[in-house]
Amino acid sequence: MAQKKPEKLIDEKDVRLDGRGLKELRPMKIEVGVLGNADGSAYIEQGKNKILAAVYGPKEAHPKHLAIPDRALLRCRYHMAPFSVEERKSPAPSRREVELSKVIREALEPAVFVEYYPRTSIDTFVEVLQADGGTRCAAITVASLALADAGIPMRGLVAACAAGKVEGRLVLDLDDIEDKEGEADLPLAWMSHSNAITLLQMDGSLTLDEFGQAVNMAVEGCKQIHGLQKETLKAKYVAVKEEVEE
Ligand code: ADP
Fold first, then answer.
1. Distance of CA 49 to CAs 1, 162, 196, 212, Å?
2. SS3 at position 74
3. Least C-beta-crowded within 10 Å: which of 43, 120, 188, 239?
4. 184-202 average pLDDT score
5. Which domains, ranges and CATH numbers included, belong to the chain?
6. Hey, which bits of the chain come out as E strands?
7. How far is the CA of 133 from the centre of ligand 1 (A)?
């Protein structure tokens, strides 16, 4: 977003512009099962980011020639709404959205037991309603929950967040202005259960030592997000169980 760069992004007490500490995530709110017509869905707010994810499948793959004989075809579409950024964005898919769709799919695929559903497709749609930096990560976090909500067997949940460097300091979960004005941004996705990293990208430059610290910081952030993902899923199933029992 076209924000004017303030003089300082981090003050002398290590407080960031939005009041966070260096290793603090943005406030998060997650919900699952928010849409009636999809097989699975979830919604996330992470700071000013607002993102919806919906899943259809597993269902017979169309067009048929794309069907894979021994596993499901996992597809993903990341899309930013025209009103998601300060200046209206064209609703047509940009190169960035095509690339992010692939990156998000590849971050999620290791978690999904695609081999359970040969010749089918599992389609994940991500709609960014409001963007403020780190949307690929929030998209992975919320899409992973939508897959779980669709009842698709998974090895673990995937959580994602970035670490980076702003005004010479390592920080967690960069927002848009920190991403644009900072020296480095390192988005990372982490899969629970197998403790695997399923996405690692980097913009900018870090020393080898800083790189190691940033990876650890992002993994710690992902573990916190994973805690919230688990709580949200559990709360939904407790609510469903209570409804059934009534
Ligand atoms: P991510 O959202 O994963 O950090 P980028 O680094 O490409 O992905 O984008 C950073 C931020 O830049 C986005 O979250 C969004 O706030 C902003 N942005 C992306 N595309 C546009 C666009 N077309 N117009 C205005 N702002 C954009």
1. 12, 14, 25, 27
2. strand
3. 239
4. 97
5. 28-245 (3.30.230.70)
6. 28-32, 40-46, 49-60, 73-80, 120-130, 158-166, 169-172, 184-191, 196-200, 203-204
7. 6
pLDDT tops 90 at residue 7? no
Q: Please name the residue that has the structure tokens 């260096």.
A: 22
Listed in sequence order, the residues at least 6 apart from 92 whose beta carbon sits closer than 8 Å to its beta carbon are none
β-sheet bridge partners, residue 120: 60
Question: Taking a C-beta distance cutoff of 8 angstroms, is the pair 25, 19 a contact?
Answer: no
**How far apart are the CA of 131 and the centre of ligand 1, in A?**
7
**CA pair distance 57, 218, nearest whole angstrom:** 31
DSSP-derived letter for residue 71 is B
166 Cα: distance to centroid of ligand 1 (angstroms): 17
Other C-beta atoms within 10 Å of 236: how many?
Answer: 17
Eight-state DSSP code of residue 110: G
Q: Quick one: tokens of 162? A: 């970035």
94-103: list long-range contacts, CB under 8 Å, 24+ apart: 100/135, 100/136, 100/139, 101/76, 101/77, 101/126, 102/76, 103/136, 103/199, 103/201
Long-range contacts of range 87-91, CB-CB < 8 Å, 24 or more positions apart? 87/2
**Three-class DSSP category at 174:** coil
Give the mean pLDDT of 124-149: 98
CA distance linking residue 172 with residue 174, whole number of Å: 6
Res 4: pLDDT: 67
Write down the residue that tokens 């359970």 correspond to: 116
Q: Which amino acid is it at 33?
A: G
Atom of ligand 1 nearest to the CA of 139: 3
Residue nearest to atom 2 of ligand 1 (CA): 135
